[in-house]
Amino acid sequence: YYLMFSYFLQKDPDYLKLWLDSFVSSYEQFLDVDFEKLPTRVDDVPPGISLLPDNILQVLRLQLLQCVQKMSDGLEEQQQTLSLLLVKFFIILCRNLANVEEIGMCSYINHVITMTTLYIQQLKSKTKEKEVADQTPIEEFVRHALAFCESLYDPYRNWRQQIAGRFLSTVEKSRQKYKPASLTVEFVPFFYQCFQESEHLKESLKCCLLHLFGAIVAGGQRNALQAVSPATMEVLMRVLADCDNWDDRNPEEVSRKAELTLKCLTEVVHVLLTSSSDQRQVETSTILENYFKLLNSDHSALPNARRCRQWESRFIALQIQMLNTITAMLDCTDRPVLQAIFLNSNCFEHLIRLLQNCKVFQGHLDCLAVSTIQALTAVMHKSPAAKEVFKERIGYAHIYEVLKSLGQPSRELLEELMNMAVEGDHMAVGILGISNVQPLLLLIQWLPELESHDLQIFISNWLRRICCINRQSRATCVNANMVIRIIETLNSRSALHCTCAENLIALLGSLGSQSMGSEELLQLIRLLRTEEPKGAHPYVVPVMRAILAMARKQGMASALQYFNLYHSMAGIAVPSIHKWPGSAFSFNAWLCLDQDQVDPSTSSKSGKRKQLY
Question: Where does the Neurobeachin alpha-solenoid region domain start and stop, copy by copy (predicted)?
């Protein structure tokens, strides 16, 4: 405190600078300005404002204001050093979360944003003087200024934790004692201005700006709804559209910029879902409309100079990132609400059109198709309404033709269709049951078209296991007319490997033991016809085994007709009894309790049980 006493006594700014330098050096471990790193755990905390010298905040505000006023003429080296020390001092103070609200109410942040805006304008202008001059002090100030904003608006570093892969629940956020400072009205114009004519601004600084936006949205809903405006959404879409034009920029930095922009959009969608319509400046449907427009942007309108093979690979890489983000967006607590918004945005049509348009590219088609199927699965996940909408608007016959037109599928694409059927990991047979039978019918139809016999055997073996796992799975497949689809596929005998055909016939036998109509049995017998009267059809033996399996009763006797109460909302409604026959009545019924499928996503939560009442 000797330095501060000397400053107040002699009004010599050198003493103030020495005090600031000493203070910052003592708490330097709190200057974690790298957004990519999680905050360092420190046992100590900076002092509260009440423990600082009297009137120190007013003195620092005047010093900062003087720096702002001299910005237009250019700051001298000493003033640049002082302004950076001031920002570092404020960052350290904010790491004591009890100080955040009071610091945010002062005018420091507005002065800092004014200086940062002018510095970024200098960094955006490409001149000979800039190429010669050292820009490091300016960049250092900008990075610290953005970190100061983060300290005010995301004091618990929620954004950094999410970027690092740690999910924060709503309950965890609600338990955070200190609230972020109220967002200054200067932020939205500042953010918009930074990305205007910013082609010469370093990609790393753009990433810092995106980190700050994400931190504000993740820090608290009140600030998030103020920051999410038409202007900021326009910036995010423009940044995303610019990510396919790398020029001489660092590819890793451009890819990271795209990734951060998509994470920001995901966080924005989640915040908007939890808000009321009168609080929102932008609707989720508007964001999705612009998102799908960019996803399906017309590359043919680009000049030939940009439509090179290298650009194509970059553009497809961006599309794959955007498709994967759809899955991330839908991973939220209000999933049914967001699924309805996606459906109203005609997402199915956009995704199928993407597959149709991607045929003009030479490579990466399979990766794009895999990501598209993943996005479709996410939109339809556990939503019977979404599945019906897809069947009506698109149809699985159409998606089959589109996928087939892309050429021979990879194992990854076929596995993704399996994942769509079980709405999870296809390898978890026995844990996951059939949630969507239509992809299974598509796979059966595709088998004769596959040139790889290994893939034929792999798929047919998996189909045999998943479709016959229990009574519920068999009933689902029978109701979807899978028996006829199998017989149609078996008619392409020359294109099927013998092991694949045997797997399909065994599957047919298992489904037939559940239910088989006369027309289906007739088609099966017709399958054994041969052109040569004396030659036996190679399917005779396995088909006879399948028919014997259908006729043979294994295990306990069971009803041939029954009510299926598998779904959580299933039940039997009976009319009300107007006149009771007596004081009571009895009701008798047989119950068949199949082993229920376990949903891994809910296995850790409180269990559910069926009740008979």
Answer: 307-550
Per DSSP, 594 falls in state P
Q: Which 8-state DSSP code applies to residue 536?
A: P
DSSP lists the bridge partners of residue 429 as 432
> Residue 591: which pLDDT band, with cuts at 50, 70 and 90?
confident
Q: Above 80 in pLDDT, residue 315?
A: yes
Tell me: pLDDT of 596 over 60: no
Q: How many residues does the chain have?
A: 613
Q: What is the DSSP letter of 596?
A: P
Place of tokens 């065994």: 506
Is residue 331 classed as helix, strand or coil in its secondary structure? coil
Mean pLDDT (whole number) for 274-284: 94
Distance spanning both ends of the chain, measured CA to CA = 77
Q: What DSSP character marks residue 600?
A: G
What's the pLDDT score for residue 133?
59
Which pLDDT score, from 0 to 100, does residue 102 have? 92
Q: Sketch the domain layout of the chain as residue ranges.
A: 1-227, 240-298+307-407, 408-554
pTM score, two decimals? 0.87
Contact 63, 111 (CB under 8 A): no
- DSSP conformation letters of 5-71: HHHHHH--HHHHHHHHHHHHHHTGGG----TTSPPPP-SS-PPPGGGSPTTHHHHHHHHHHHHHHTT
Residues 209 and 146 sit within 8 Å (Cβ to Cβ): yes
Amino acid at 322: M
- pLDDT, mean of residues 206-216: 97
Q: How confident is the model at residue 165, as a pLDDT? A: 87
Backbone angles phi, psi at 79, to 5 degrees: -70, -35
The CA radius of gyration of the chain, in Å to the nearest whole number, is 32
Structure tokens at 587: 């009701």
CA atoms of 317 and 321, how far apart (whole Å): 6
Q: Tokens for 85?
A: 């020390």
Token representation of residue 33 = 């300005």
Nearest to 147 by CA among 63, 228, 255, 36: 36
pLDDT top residue among 535 and 68: 68
What confidence tens digit (pLDDT) does each residue in 18-64 have?
A: 888 888 998 888 888 999 988 777 667 888 888 887 788 888 888 88
On the question of pLDDT at 146 being above 90, the answer is yes
With vertex at residue 308, the alpha carbon angle to CA 410 and CA 126, rounded to the nearest 5 degrees, is: 125
CA 509 – CA 543 distance, rounded (Å):
8
The backbone region for 157, taken as left when phi is positive above 0, alpha when psi lies in -120 to 50, beta otherwise, is left
Asked if 365 contacts 411 with a C-beta cutoff of 8 angstroms, the reply is no
Alpha helix stretches (DSSP H) within 183-299: 187-194, 203-219, 221-227, 230-241, 251-273, 284-295
| Three-state secondary-structure class, residue 153 | helix
The two three-digit tokens of residue 579, written as one number: 């006149």
Residue 6 confidence (pLDDT): 52
Residue 1 neighbours by CB under 8 Å, 6+ apart: 53
